[in-house]
Automatic annotation (TrEMBL):
<dbReference type="GO" id="GO:0006744">
    <property type="term" value="P:ubiquinone biosynthetic process"/>
</dbReference>
<dbReference type="Pfam" id="PF02036">
    <property type="entry name" value="SCP2"/>
</dbReference>
<dbReference type="InterPro" id="IPR016830">
    <property type="entry name" value="UbiT"/>
</dbReference>
<comment type="pathway">
    <text>Cofactor biosynthesis; ubiquinone biosynthesis.</text>
</comment>
<comment type="function">
    <text>Required for O(2)-independent ubiquinone (coenzyme Q) biosynthesis. Likely functions as an accessory factor.</text>
</comment>
<protein>
    <recommendedName>
        <fullName>Ubiquinone biosynthesis accessory factor UbiT</fullName>
    </recommendedName>
</protein>
<dbReference type="InterPro" id="IPR036527">
    <property type="entry name" value="SCP2_sterol-bd_dom_sf"/>
</dbReference>
<keyword id="KW-0831">Ubiquinone biosynthesis</keyword>
<comment type="similarity">
    <text>Belongs to the UbiT family.</text>
</comment>
<feature type="domain" description="SCP2">
    <location>
        <begin position="76"/>
        <end position="163"/>
    </location>
</feature>
<dbReference type="InterPro" id="IPR003033">
    <property type="entry name" value="SCP2_sterol-bd_dom"/>
</dbReference>
């Protein structure tokens, strides 16, 4: 049986930021609120290498994150139309193609990928900016930095769900 971590971060008896002097803490907080993901593209060689590697480990990581969010910030009832449909996320500059589906047990990797019902493609920087709410899906889509292929109804459902997510629910208090 795996041993749990000795003390989860959420149960620390103090705020780690309180260890910093007041002025430094305020400067760091101010910088973090204005921090933006720099514009970058991963090297082409990395994409060629990653494309040759098994795609299951990063797909498992993605589905784990999605399942952690499912029911907490991703409402199950809203995602019902995704049930049984194959989704694909392509991280273009990383050479990753992640195939997964929503089942009764949550998001699961698809082992034998067929033609996906919906494919979302972008650079890693754009997916990070989307997750951090620096940019919204519409901006990325209309600037051709996020591509959606396949079932447009599913694409709109995913986009609207991402827009409605309460990201503040993930913050530690």
């Amino acid at each position: 049986m795996p041993r749990p971590f000795p003390l989860p971060l959420r149960s620390l008896p103090f705020d780690p930021a309180s260890l910093l002097p007041g002025a430094l803490r305020q400067r760091i907080a101010a910088r973090l609120t204005t921090l933006q993901v720099p514009d970058f593209t991963l090297p082409a060689g990395l994409a060629r290498l990653c494309a040759r590697l098994p795609q299951q480990p990063p797909t498992h990581a993605l589905t784990l994150l999605l399942n952690l969010a499912l029911g907490r910030i991703l409402p199950r009832d809203t995602l019902e139309p995704l049930h049984g449909r194959q989704l694909q996320v392509r991280v273009l500059d990383a050479g990753l193609t992640l195939n997964f589906s929503l089942t009764d047990q949550g998001f699961r990797p698809v082992i034998r990928a067929e033609a996906p019902d919906l494919t979302l493609s972008a650079r890693s920087r754009d997916f990070i900016a989307l997750a951090l709410r620096e940019e919204d899906a519409d901006t990325l889509f209309f600037s051709r930095r996020l591509r959606m292929e396949g079932d447009t109804e599913l694409g709109l459902l995913v986009k609207n769900t991402l827009d409605a997510v309460d990201w503040e629910a993930l913050r530690m208090h």
